[in-house]
Amino acid sequence: MLKTILVGLFVCLATAQSMEMYTPIQQIKLNGTAKDIVLRGDRLFIGTEQGFLQVYDYTVQKFTYAIELPKIKDFVGDMVPPRVFSVDFSDGKYILLSDSGQGGFANMWMHENNTTTQLIGPKDKKALVKARLIDKEHIMLAYLSNEVALFNIKTKKELYRVQLSESKFSDFALNENKTLVVFSCESGVLNVIDVSSGKVLKELKGINLDNVYKVDFKNGIVSGAGQDRRGSLYNVETGRGDYIEGNFLIYATGLSPSASKVAFAMDEHNDISIYDVATKSKIALLQGQKSTLNTIIFKDEKTLFSTSEDNTVMMWELK
What span, in angstroms and rounded, lies between the C-alpha atoms of 149 and 31? Predict the structure, then answer.
């Protein structure tokens, strides 16, 4: 019995010693709550609830550009800043999705060469949730109704629009070369879709049994942040999956570029847990986020960023 206790104590001490604790190395203050964020090179592109897309260069630690959208009328007729809830940047083009103030429909804007053009307005009656640039001419769109569409910038028309299920949309993530996209929804089923055609190639299911708030897609691996307290991990090629059990609703996830590490918001303290994907062992705990996490992005195997329901973006560096 004594031998068993000593062995158990040794294992616990070894696990504690192998897990590193971290605090943020940068805290970036925004002009409002961050609603969406993407990383392109050394710059963060952040949409805020105050009607802005802010560009932050973390190497020089300053904001380098900003786009402000026109105010909209709220439900009582006051002029207020629109919530910018999806942003992207590529090849000199900025894409912004924002509230229109009319019927729950979205505005979509393109900003290029210091000029902002409206691509979609409330008259188009599109309840859009997320947008990402595929190339110079195309944008991947997600509808609240869990429909996927590919939008042509020049013609302002959708090349296809596919209903994935009756469940409400949650999130999507593209693979590295933007040929595949994985969609998550409130049912827990993840759909892997061919970007060029909209064809559903595979369903990833059986791990999450409820809403998957966020997904990431790196190096053939998909991670999912589940309402059922499961951080799911799927191999897209085989379709096989597994999960890491949390003790709270898991609102955010992110994979390192090699997919050797995965991050989940695993507890009610808004900490970020980092796991080794192969062993599913916890290797780091990131502490300091003050409200509910909504996004985790790895730049490389050691550097990552996170946002939550406040006006602070945090930068972390692992050993």
Answer: 31
Nearest C-alpha neighbor of 270 from the set 286, 282, 254: 286
The Cα–Cα gap between 212 and 249 comes to 10
The residues of the chain scoring below 70 in pLDDT are 1-18
Instruction: Give the integer Cα–Cα distance in Å for 133 and 69.
Output: 19
Output Rg (C-alpha) for the chain, integer angstroms.
20
Q: Can you tell me the distance from the alpha carbon of 213 to that of 265, in angstroms, rounded to the nearest whole number?
A: 11
Amino acid at position 121, single letter: G
Distance of alpha carbon 120 from alpha carbon 134, whole angstroms: 17
Q: Are strands 282-286 and 20-22 parallel, antiparallel or unpaired?
A: parallel
Report the alpha-carbon distance of residue 188 to residue 211 in Å, rounded.
5
Q: Give residue 31's pLDDT.
A: 95
Distances (CA, A) of 249 to 2, 225, 306: 38, 8, 17
pLDDT for the residue 1: 44
Look-up of token digits 């550009």: 65
pLDDT digits (tens, 9 = 90+) for 95-145: 999 999 998 899 999 999 999 999 999 999 999 999 999 999 999 999 999
CA-closest candidate to residue 301, choices 256, 263, 264: 256
Q: How far apart are CA 47 and CA 177, in angstroms?
A: 24
Q: How far apart are CA 226 and CA 208, in angstroms?
A: 6
CA-closest candidate to residue 189, choices 251, 234, 255:
234
Give pLDDT, residue 76: 82
73 — alpha (psi -120 to 50), left (phi > 0) or beta? beta
Integer CA distances (angstroms), 291 to 13, 129, 190, 212, 286, in order: 30, 22, 27, 19, 13
Bridge partners (DSSP) of residue 90 are 93
What's the token pair of residue 132? 């990402």
- The pTM score is 0.93
